[in-house]
Structure formats: structure tokens, C-alpha cells
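An instance follows:
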Amino acid sequence: MKKFFLRLFLFLIFIPILILIIYQFNFLNFILLNLLILFFAITGAIETKNFFKADPKIKSGWLIILLSSSFPVLAYFLLWFRNLNNLQEIWIIAVIIIIFIKVTFYDCRKDFSHFFPNFTSSIITVIYPGLLLSYLIKLLSFNYPAHLITLFIGSVFGNDICAYLGGKFLGSKTRLNLKISPNKTLIGFIAGIGFSILFTVFFYYAVPEMFQTNLLFIILFAILISITTIMGDLIESAIKRAVNIKDSGTLMLGRGGILDSIDSILISAPVFYFLYPLISG
């Protein structure tokens, strides 16, 4: 029960502060929000790197953390120079080459049999969460950025907290017994998806200029974002179970580490970014 109140307290404190940053401190292309996302990216990359520290074959260093955090920095840069959008794809290729050189000529120079665990762990640390979080910043490039980022964050975090509350208080008999996350319940999933639909429909009527489609597609959009929100949570659960770690860290009271708090965003952010233009006209 103590963990429940800690999670609820964190949610009730964090969300109002986040909304304040979005609407009242939105100067310089939302620089405060971008700095917060960069902090999440750096801390999340450190936590991801720590997933692999138990394997003596894997050598990781701060270069991989810097490469991971470079993607949110680049995304913010592209808010100012939007005609250079292809720069991200070029940088992704460059990062892969840098990692290949690091692993080949430094990490595995004495024993090339360790190439695959070092290369794959480095790629995962760069992509998760650095590259994936950069799509949260890229949402700011659309029209009505403050409303859009609020819609996304509210939908994802609302889904997360409603799924938790629904599963905890109503879902004891609907436990899905998933090996990667035994406490997940059908009621929790339904509660989370239901909130996302209601929240998105509210925005559809409150800020109609954000959308250029009918209500049915808005609901389908909300369901897809909800599913990717759930998948983000399950993917992190699978990673932690694979390396036998309960929490990614201890920074967030009642929630473990940064990755435990933002896992739902990591898959849903790029999906939201690519799907939103289909309903915004």
C-alpha cells in the first residue's frame, strides 16, 4: 500500500509541474521541457547500460551514453532548422558506424568472439531510450505543440495510472499471468485504454482545430496509442526479467528508476509522431 501512495503522490505532483512547464515556460521552443527530456534520456541510458553490467563480456562506457543523449539534442536542434529533417537519418547511420568502430577496434580487439553482445548492447543502449525519446521532442514541430504534447503525455500517463489502479482494486480475478509481467490484469488494460479514449475524445471536442477526421478514427488512434503504451511497459518488463532486475533504478519514489517511469512513452512516442499527421489533415 505504501508503494501505491508513493506512485499516486508522484503522479499528482509531476503532472501539474509538467503542464506548468509546457504552458508557462514554453520559450525558446520549450527549452525547459527539452532539458527535462534530455535528463530522462541520459539517466535512462545509464540505467540501460547497467542492465548489461553483469555480463563480463560486455564493455560499455560513456561514449554510448553520449551517443544516446545526442538524439534528443539533435531533435531540439531540428526544431530551429526544420529544413534539415533528414539529418536525423544521417546521424543514425553515423552512430551505427561509430558503435561498430568502437566495438571492433576497442572492445573486441583482443577477443572478437565478444562482438555480438557488445554491439547489440550498445545499439540497445543508444536506441532505448535516447532515439525513442527524441520523438517526444519531434512532436513539438507540429501545429499546437503545447496541446499536442499535453494530449500525448496525458493519454500515456493517464493510461498507466488507470491501468495500475484498475488492476490493483478491481482486477485481482482477471490477472493475465503473463510471464514477463505477472501482475498485469485484463481490467487494468481495459481501464487504461478506456481513459486514453476518453481523454483523446475530450481533446477532439475541446480543440477541434487539431484534428481533421471523424470521431471513429480518433477512437482508433487512441486505441493504437494505448496498445503501444502497454507494449512499452511490457518491453521494459521483459528486459528486466531477462537480466533478473526488479527495478531499473531507485531515483523515482515508488516507481524504481527513470526507465520504470517512462517505459510507456518509449514505444508510443514514435508511433504517435507518425500517426498523428493522418488525423490532423
Notes: The chain is about 75% helix and 0% strand. Residues 2-280 form one domain. The mean pLDDT is 88. Residues 51 and 243 are 6 Å apart (CA to CA).
